[in-house]
From TrEMBL:
SUPFAM superfamilies: p53-like transcription factors (SSF49417), SH2 domain (SSF55550), STAT (SSF47655), Transcription factor STAT-4 N-domain (SSF48092). Keywords: Acetylation, Activator, ADP-ribosylation, Coiled coil, Cytoplasm, DNA-binding, Isopeptide bond, Methylation, Nucleus, Phosphoprotein, SH2 domain, Transcription, Transcription regulation, Ubl conjugation. This is Signal transducer and activator of transcription. It is found in: Cytoplasm; Nucleus. GO terms for molecular function: DNA binding; DNA-binding transcription factor activity, RNA polymerase II-specific.
Length: 744
């Protein structure tokens, strides 16, 4: 079943979540019509490879054209109209930046997998609950409402300033008219009446000046309160959601909404600034005793400038954290001399700033806060922000060709690179720029989340563990000394993050039973993990009891095994995986003989085994577990084929496949049939292929179980038999006779 088919079967509350991240950037119609094709492409790789992204974009448009031809024949007018619009959108929006559509589709697929994993969980995890708090959603709506109200108030004040300007022009005209009269005319009763009218007009001017200044003051106060409270909280929440998304959590959104709020507030502040400048012009033409403008205007202008400085400083954010294109699901782990990408955005989107802001990238700017290892950035480290490279038109800049290079120490050698010292050292990528606008000069600076520098890919697993632990445990964006004394993590939150590793990396998260097994493995005993605290050392530094590896190394090896060798079986949910030997026997003991389950080895790194239940002649139940298959053996023979062809020789009996039903009662071929590389009776004949002078051979996994043993004696035996020999035997002998010959 395709991922999209599974999505469509979700409950309405999960479907509403899916609906939130499909928009005009990637319309749901395309996701629906091209579901299987979309899921068969490697969008993650294309998100960091421009040439590959361009090919996928072109192929996507071809697929849309094929659909357009099909619906044209069916005369589906609405769908024809939508597909034409979508085709135009894809060509116009992404032709200059094909990697952006790859990022969007990759994120959508990943978010679908996360929602599917969440739907299979009995309860929502504590971290995800905190991110979807109804109070937070209500605050978002309040911020948008208040920003809109502030914008309207600033525009209304514009009208008041215009009225004041017109009133003062009328006053100037009438006053100058009287001043131009002869002295005798000024003593007339009519002129005295006009002077009284001028005095009344001056009183009105004074009142209107005070009223305008009061309204400007209220707008400034509203902006100040909004920035100090709700908007700051919104920005901090977005940054926290970004942290969680970086370690596999829910896809973070809301940056476009924040950009809209920041931009409207900046426009309102600049509008207020122009109003104050207009009042200054009116002041130069007319002032009087008790005039409120010279008293209040300087204070208001100072406050506006202060708010603009703060607004711009908060608006400079890292939209996409540093990430190596070769490891898109391991952000913030950077390898020396390997390129990484990072994207920044200014949330104040003003046309006047397009291509006017040059951003400079540096590493470890505050060198006193980091380790003895020193790095420099090679490649293009200064670029201009613009609105043309992003599909949504945001004012942003993406560095795509930066490389960290380690500098030699004064002694001529590189810094300490022990297995944990390196992966626990945190570094920071900093960015600085300057905004010059309407007479203001504002220096901006921001930093990435802490990154870990590695010099060898073997350090990647432990480095990623550091990134997980940091972003799980703190929302401090720049605590580079974090691992000097790393805090403990709540076990329930850690298990939730571990499930995210599986949903984001291999397409299916962990259920409560699987998480309970991991909790027991971490703690060494069954625990109620709602409020249990786990140390960093126990997670990543201390070896598991009786083993030569840590918990995290064991888990990372399983992730790698799934990704490279058993991914389809894992996504289908046929790999129970995390179950102890004791629990598996409890599950199997009452099942039909031949029922088996698949679990990950607890003693071998990156190993998977299967255990089946059998019944002896006296009625006793016995269990057999095959020696774990590792990536080396699975590279030679697909795991589904192993399950299909596996044979057991019990003493002198005929070889037979003991695997009948996948737990609890799924016929083996029904579960794995679609994953078999070929059917047993479809083996090739000698003329069909093979190196000249040789006949091709196949491997059949066979185990031999002795009468005095309940476990396979040599479970890894692989006996070669050529396809041609097998085919000839099938023509002349029965399957029983063949297996008797094999056993002999």
């Amino acid at each position: 079943m395709s991922q999209w088919s599974q999505v469509q079967q979700l409950e309405i509350k999960f479907l509403e979540q899916v609906d939130q991240f499909y928009d005009d950037n990637f319309p749901m119609e395309i996701r629906h019509l091209l579901a299987q094709w979309i899921e068969s492409q490697d969008w993650e790789a294309a998100a960091n490879n421009e040439a590959m992204a361009m090919i996928l974009l072109q192929n996507l448009i071809i697929q849309v054209d094929d659909q357009l031809d099909r619906v044209s024949q069916e005369k589906n007018l609405l769908l024809i109209h939508n597909l034409k619009r979508i085709r135009k959108l894809l060509q116009g929006k992404y032709h200059g930046n094909p990697m952006h559509i790859a990022v969007i589709i990759s994120n959508c697929l990943r978010e679908e997998r996360r929602i599917l994993a969440a739907a299979s969980m009995p309860v929502q995890g504590p971290l995800e609950k905190s991110l979807q708090n109804s109070v937070v959603s209500e605050r978002q709506r309040n911020v948008e409402h208040k920003v809109s109200a502030i914008k309207n108030s600033a525009q209304m004040t514009d009208q008041d300033v215009k009225y004041l300007e017109d009133l003062q022009e009328e006053f100037d005209f009438r006053y100058k008219t009287i001043q131009s009269l002869e002295q005798n005319d000024k003593n007339s009763a009519l002129i005295k009446q006009e002077m009284l009218a001028l005095q009344a007009m001056l009183n009105t001017l004074d009142y209107k000046r005070k009223e305008v200044l009061s309204k400007i003051g209220r707008v400034i106060h509203e902006i100040d309160m909004l920035m100090s409270n709700m908007l700051t909280e919104e920005l901090l929440d977005w940054k926290r959601r970004q942290q969680i998304a970086c370690i596999g959590g829910p896809l973070h959104g809301g940056l476009d909404q924040l950009q809209n709020c920041f931009t409207l507030l900046a426009e309102s502040l600049f509008q207020v600034r122009r109003q104050l400048e207009k009042l200054d012009e009116l002041l130069t033409r007319l002032t009087y005793d008790g005039d409120p403008i010279p008293v209040q205007r300087p204070q208001l202008l100072e406050k506006v400038n202060f708010l603009l400085y703060n607004l711009f400083r908060n608006s400079f954010v890292v939209e996409r954290q540093p990430c190596m294109p070769t490891h898109p699901q391991r952000p913030m782990v950077l390898k020396t001399l390997i390129q990484f990408t990072v994207k920044l955005r200014l949330l104040i989107k003003l046309p006047e700033l397009n291509y006017q802001i040059r951003v400079k990238a540096t590493i470890d700017k505050n060198v006193s806060t980091v380790s003895n290892r020193r790095f420099v950035l090679c490649g293009t480290h200064v670029k201009a922000m613009n609105m043309d490279e992003s599909a949504n038109g945001s004012l942003s800049v993406e560095f795509r060709h930066l490389q960290p290079k380690e500098m030699k120490t004064s002694a001529g050698s590189k810094g300490n690179e022990g297995p944990h010292m390196v992966t626990e050292e945190l570094h920071s990528i900093s960015f600085e720029t300057q905004v010059c606008l309407y007479g203001l000069t504002i220096n901006l600076e921001t930093s990435s989340l802490p990154v870990v520098m590695i010099s060898n890919v073997s350090q990647l697993p432990n480095a990623w563990a550091s990134i997980i632990w940091y972003n799980l445990s703190t929302n401090d964006p720049q605590n580079l000394s974090f691992f000097n004394n790393p805090p403990a993590a709540t076990l329930s939150q850690l298990l939730e993050v571990l499930s995210w590793q599986f949903s984001s990396y291999v397409g299916r998260g962990l259920n409560s039973e699987q998480l309970s097994m991991l909790a027991e493995k971490l703690m060494g005993q069954p625990v109620s993990y709602n409020d249990y605290q786990l140390s960093w050392a126990k997670f990543c530094k201390e070896h598991l009891p009786g083993k030569s590896f840590t918990f995290w190394v064991w888990l990372e090896a399983i992730l790698d095994l799934i990704k490279k060798h058993i991914l389809p079986l894992w996504i289908d949910g046929y790999v129970m995986g995390f179950v102890s030997k004791e629990k598996e026997r409890i599950l199997l003991k009452d099942k039909t003989p031949g029922t088996f389950l698949l679990r990950f080895s607890e003693s071998n790194l990156g190993g998977i085994t299967f255990t089946w239940v059998d019944q002896l002649e006296n009625g006793d139940v016995t269990f057999h577990s095959v020696e774990p298959y590792n990536k080396g053996r699975l590279s030679a023979l697909p795991f589904a084929d192993i399950l299909r062809d596996y044979k057991v020789i019990m003493a002198d009996n005929v070889p037979e496949n003991p695997l009948k039903y996948l737990y609890p009662d799924i016929p083996k071929d029904k579960a794995f049939g679609k994953h078999y590389s070929c059917q047993p009776n479809e083996v090739s004949k000698p003329s069909d292929g093979g190196v000249k002078g040789y006949v091709p051979s196949v491997f059949i996994p066979v185990s031999k179980i002795l009468n005095d043993s309940t476990e396979p004696h040599s479970p890894s035996d692989l006996l070669p038999m050529s396809p041609s020999v097998y085919a000839v035997l099938r023509e002349h002998l029965s399957p029983t006779a063949i297996e008797t010959a094999v056993s002999a």
